[in-house]
């Protein structure tokens, strides 16, 4: 939108909101028999999102499976939920700062 | 903006947990009921959950890519416990049979209370997810200020 950094931040927020969706889906299915936890591999998904491809969700290995075949850990999902929200807020603050700088340039440095 | 569709995922979880809580409360309330419309004592009910893809009118290309992997939850059905009712010796009871036994519902209130706590906690988890996403949407909107 404005420059390369803002563009990357935009993609970053895209991947974060996608991940938040996967986490919300895990939480909603915490009591669904046979449901398996899904997640995005954040680092590699972000790298591929920068080159324009779409993120893919995959199943998470190594979580203890309950008797009903479900392996959602609410603690893990709560952590990811908070982490994603904070990362997203950070990214949006950074973009806001970029927009503020452009605005200031438009207004010839006069603060509005 | 795919963030809005996250809200419907959490909402589906809340609706499913609410249905489950309603059934559990019904079980507790009817743990001593000996007469029902179907005849015989009350039978314990429970919700069966299954995951289902969320569909949104604004489903974007990004959603289509993830189709099938991001799922909400729905109540697929209600299971009714068809095991034999518990016979309790109560000769003075109006529903007692010739031998003085009354068919009582096979409901264990302790079990239902524990499930009810689980349903309530799961509901709260969905509310937390929803409010976290709401904050993210609010921050995106604030970019326009």
Describe the overall structure.
The complex is a heterodimer of chains A (about 110) and B (about 140). Chain A starts with a helix and ends in a 6-residue tail after the last helix. In chain A, helix 1 crosses helix 2 (about 40-50) and helix 1 (about 5-30) runs antiparallel to helix 3. Chain A is elongated. Chain A has a two-stranded antiparallel ribbon with strand order 1-2. With about 110 residues, chain A is mainly α. Chain A has helices at about 5-30, 40-50, 75-105; strands at about 40, 60. Chain A is built from three helices and two strands; from the N terminus they run αβαβα. Chain A has one domain (about 1-105). The model of chain A has no long low-confidence stretch (mean pLDDT about 85). Chain B is of the alpha+beta class and about 140 residues long. Chain B has one domain (about 5-80, about 110-140). In chain B, strands 1-2 form a two-stranded antiparallel sheet. Chain B has a two-stranded antiparallel sheet with strand order 3-4. The relative contact order of chain B is 0.23. The model of chain B has no long low-confidence stretch (mean pLDDT about 85).
Which terms summarize this structure?
heterodimer; A: 112 residues; mainly alpha; two-stranded antiparallel sheet; elongated; B: alpha+beta; two-stranded antiparallel ribbon; 4 strands
**Total helix count of chain B?**
3
Low-confidence stretches of chain B: none
Q: How many strands of chain B?
A: 4
State the share of residues found in helices of chain B, binned by percent. Answer: 40-55%
Task: Record the SSE blueprint.
The complex is a heterodimer of chains A (112) and B (145).
Chain A: H1 4-28, E1 38-39, H2 42-50, E2 58-59, H3 74-106
Antiparallel strand pairs in A: 1-2
Chain B: H1 3-29, E1 45-53, H2 61-65, E2 71-80, E3 86-89, E4 101-104, H3 109-142
Antiparallel strand pairs in B: 1-2, 3-4
Helix pairs in contact in B: 1-3
């Amino acid at each position: 939108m404005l420059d390369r950094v803002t563009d990357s931040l935009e993609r970053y927020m895209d991947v974060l909101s996608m991940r938040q969706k996967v986490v919300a889906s895990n939480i909603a299915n915490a009591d669904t028999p046979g449901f398996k936890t899904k997640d995005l591999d954040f680092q590699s998904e972000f790298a591929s999102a920068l080159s324009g491809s779409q993120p893919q969700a995959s199943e998470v290995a190594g979580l203890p499976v309950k008797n009903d075949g479900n392996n959602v850990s609410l603690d893990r999902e709560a952590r990811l939920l908070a982490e994603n929200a904070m990362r997203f807020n950070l990214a949006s603050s950074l973009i806001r700062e970029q927009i503020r700088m452009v605005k200031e340039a438009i207004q010839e440095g006069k603060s509005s | 903006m795919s963030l809005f569709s996250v809200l419907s995922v959490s909402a589906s979880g809340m609706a499913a947990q609410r249905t489950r809580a309603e059934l559990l409360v019904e079980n507790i309330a009817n743990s001593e009921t000996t007469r029902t419309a179907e005849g015989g004592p009350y039978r314990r009910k429970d919700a069966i959950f299954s995951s289902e893809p969320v569909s949104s009118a604004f489903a974007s290309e990004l959603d289509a890519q993830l189709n099938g992997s991001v799922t909400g939850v729905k109540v697929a059905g209600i299971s009714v416990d068809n095991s034999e009712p518990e016979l309790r010796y109560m000769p003075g009871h109006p529903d007692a049979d010739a031998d003085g036994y009354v068919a009582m519902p096979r409901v264990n209130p302790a079990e239902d209370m524990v499930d009810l706590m689980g349903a309530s906690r799961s509901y709260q988890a969905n509310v937390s997810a929803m409010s976290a996403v709401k904050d993210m949407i609010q921050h995106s909107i604030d970019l326009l200020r």
